[in-house]
Design brief:
The chain is an alpha+beta fold. The N and C termini lie far apart (about 110 Å). Strands 1, 2, 3, 4, 5, 7, 8 and 10 form an eight-stranded antiparallel beta sheet that branches. The protein has two helices and eleven strands. It is elongated and about 125 Å long. It has one domain.
């Protein structure tokens, strides 16, 4: 009897040991070490942004006794950066002008300018311009630089001026950009002190902090049809597009 009990106890002990070993093995297989690296990212897109940073204007004065500087006797012409001419009003009388006003919104969401041409007469290149800085982070090209003419009362006079300014009149020996209305400009690359002339700004490529002038010229021919013009209007738009989307 005693021998059987001992054998029975021995068998129970072996069984219990085997169970502990099995559980221990299971724990080692399940509790593998782990580690993690967490990654956070931010994406910044490129920008297209062109802002008005300055304007230029033309002022013409009649000054008694003034020498002829190429515009006629007693005629003084000032091409001024900005819209305020420092010429002393006590010396001469302002008779004509082409003035640009920066009419951009205070918040900077809308950039705009208003050009007003007053009292124009033949022989003088009246021009007004805007000075722009490109602030975008990706290269861009000027895709639109156009003037929409609104010739309300006078039967196409502005259209004639535009055609004359762009193409000239070979039958009269008039070259383009001599008389009429036209657009030109110049560009100053970022870091440069030199302005390079541009015949027409369409397709001009800009990089960040490049500066560009866009000027509208009106120079009347000595022809009676251009006298007594009033209530002529025009509007313009300058648009930039990313460089690889531009099409000639």
């Amino acid at each position: 009897m005693i021998r059987r009990n001992r054998n029975g106890l021995k068998r129970i002990g072996v069984l219990a040991l085997a169970l502990v070993i099995a559980l221990g093995s299971l724990g080692v297989a399940y509790a593998a070490w782990t580690d993690s690296v967490y990654i956070e990212g931010t994406v910044y897109t490129g920008t297209l942004d062109i802002d008005i940073v300055g304007v230029s204007s033309t002022f013409v004065y009649k000054v008694p006794g003034a020498d002829d500087t190429g515009f006629g006797p007693e005629t003084v012409v000032h091409y001024v950066y900005g819209k305020t001419d420092p010429y002393p009003p006590s010396v001469g009388t302002l008779i004509a002008s082409a003035v640009t006003d920066d009419t951009s919104t205070v918040s900077g969401d809308v950039d705009s300018a208003t050009m007003t041409f007053s009292g124009l007469f033949p022989g003088i290149d009246f021009w007004a311009d805007v000075e722009l800085m490109y602030l975008g982070t990706i290269p861009a090209k000027i895709s639109v630089a156009e003037i929409a003419l609104e010739d309300r009362p006078t039967g196409g006079i502005l259209d004639q001026l535009w055609e004359l300014g762009l193409n000239g009149d070979p039958t009269k020996g008039i070259d383009p950009h001599t008389y009429g209305a036209w657009i030109d400009g110049d560009v100053k690359p970022s870091g440069s002190a030199v302005w390079d002339p541009v015949d027409y700004p369409l397709g001009l490529q800009l990089h960040q902090f490049d500066m560009v002038h866009i000027a509208l010229h009106v120079r009347l021919p000595q022809e009676e049809q251009y006298q007594n013009i009033s209530n002529l209007g025009f509007s313009g738009i300058i648009t930039v597009i990313q460089w690889n989307e531009y099409e000639d």
